[in-house]
Design a protein that fits this description.
- About 50% of the residues lie in helices and about 5% in strands.
- It is an alpha/beta fold.
- It has one domain: Rossmann fold.
Length: about 270
Amino acid sequence: MDKFKMDLALLERVLVDFLREEAGKVGFKKVVLGLSGGIDSALVAFLAAKAFGPENVLGVMMPYKSSSKESVEHAKLVVEKTGIQSKMVEITPMVEPYFQMNPDMNSLRKGNMMARERMAVLFDNSALCGALVLGTSNKTEILLGYSTQFGDSASAINPIGDLYKTQVWELSRHMGVPDELIDKKPSADLWEGQTDEQDLGYSYRMADDILYRIVDERKTIDEIVEEGYNKEIVSKIMRRIKIMQYKRVMPVIAKVTDRTPGADFKYPRDWGV
């Protein structure tokens, strides 16, 4: 796992500076993020508190009736440790009427609905507070498409999107994120007993090992299998990267003019306001 080792103090400074610079260049001094009680949102909260000061960070807890009490308790623990502002928004009254109208909805559809409702709440609070929405998806989730499009994958800026889950754990421990969040099994908390690794069919650490070889070292499936990795798992991960590409790009626009947004009309984010 040495390939994932980084200078954690330097990484912390880079990400804190990134947040200040990216928010500042578009005129924001405050940020808002969803606090799930998981490690990713906890790390972003710790980074944001350092970047903007805890008084300028709002963490929103958005439990559903089936959410575990532990998730809420861990989210509150992050608030306590960082000193950030917080509020609780129960999403059950928002999504339950739709679930009742569609009694045949499976867990996937319900999970997607809740993820999008939570992001709607965050963007409404961003308008209320004049704050920028921070993303909390890590590199492993983004590459595997383990997110809801326009749900938890939506944000204005994301400080941890280039960190594998393994690196999120390491930086979190370095920054003082409570052990309770680091050591527990990652879960989207969509239903009782649900875990990310159970859904995926392999551990995050194995996924990170394979993703690093595919993405960073540009190795083929055969080359990775020669190193001793299971061919079925490597092939599944490669396929997920490919079929989930649509989640990682802006909506594709049909080109009918000389200068199409996203194709020919491209300017950097900081071209000036």
